[in-house]
Amino acid sequence: MKKYKTHERRIYFPAQLIAATQVIEDKNVLERLNQIAIAHIENVFGRNPTGRHFSFDGPLDFEGVNEGWFQEYQGGPGMLHLARGVLDSSAKETTFPYKPYTGFPGHTEGWVNFNIPWSISQAYMSPQKTSVAVFDSSFSKSITSARPGDKIGIEITAPLNFDYARREHGKAFVYLNNRLVKVAVKEVNTSSNRFRGKFTVPHDQSDPFKVAYGIAWHEKYVMVTIEF
After folding, report:
1. 116 and 60 in one domain?
2. How many domains does the structure of the chain reveal?
């Protein structure tokens, strides 16, 4: 197993905690693991002794960020200082529990030490805010069965609201007999985490089918049975 540096472990840790929650049943332990995972994300966004986001350009790249990191790493493989959202450094161990003016703030190349584990943690946290629901064509009631030829409503709840000023799009996945159909879903308003679209059940569909969002162990889905 790769041995991550301290600052890498700090960013990767939320993914490890959330992976553990998939096999732990104790509700108290689950609640605490989720709290710690969220705390690590907040640490990146400035809830740390320095009060600064780990990205030098944090105020430009993330809504609500007041102060970015002290220094920006220049150059390096990929020239990541030009990329949006690159993480430049972190509050060091010497600044904790609350000693903001001790220790060298430093900087490090974002690509190697931060962005990969950060992206992994974000990927693991997203499914916690993701769900799939199937409705009748008017979205007035949820359903678990449909007839061939019926039009059904698909609703995806997911962290896809990146632009608060416009309605964005996503895709749901419908797994039929031997094929996959991608269904376009649209944000219900300009700032929402709910996305809706409609799908007509093929006339030749005889087996239950799956409506899903996400892949592998991050997948959320609903099974729909066929009525005749």
Report:
1. yes
2. 2
What angle do the packed helices 6-21 and 27-44 form, to 10 degrees? 150
**What is the pairing mode between strands 145-146 and 131-135?**
unpaired
Angle at 149 between CA 144 and CA 150, to 5 degrees: 40
Instruction: Identify whether the C-beta of residue 107 lies closer than 8 Å to the C-beta of residue 94.
Output: no
Tell which phi-psi region holds residue 119, choosing left (phi > 0), alpha (psi between -120 and 50) or beta: alpha
Residue 2 has a pLDDT of 46
Q: Are residues 95 and 135 in the same domain?
A: no
Residues 6+ apart with CB under 8 A from 179: none
Q: What is the pTM of this model?
A: 0.74
Q: Which of 111-125, 128-142, 164-178 has the lowest mean pLDDT?
A: 111-125
**pLDDT single digits (tens) 184-202:** 999 999 999 999 999 999 9
Same domain, 90 and 15: yes
Query: Which residues neighbour 39 within 8 Å (Cβ) at sequence distance 6 or greater?
Result: 47
Q: Domain of 189?
A: 130-226
Tokens of 135: 């409705």
Q: Does the pLDDT value for residue 4 go beyond 50?
A: no
Distance CA 158, CA 213 (A): 9
Q: For residue 142, what is the DSSP state? A: B
So what's the pLDDT on residue 118? 78
Residue-level pLDDT at 101: 84
User: What is the CA 38 to chain-centroid distance, rounded?
Assistant: 12
Residue 20 one-letter amino acid: A
Residue showing tokens 């632009």: 163
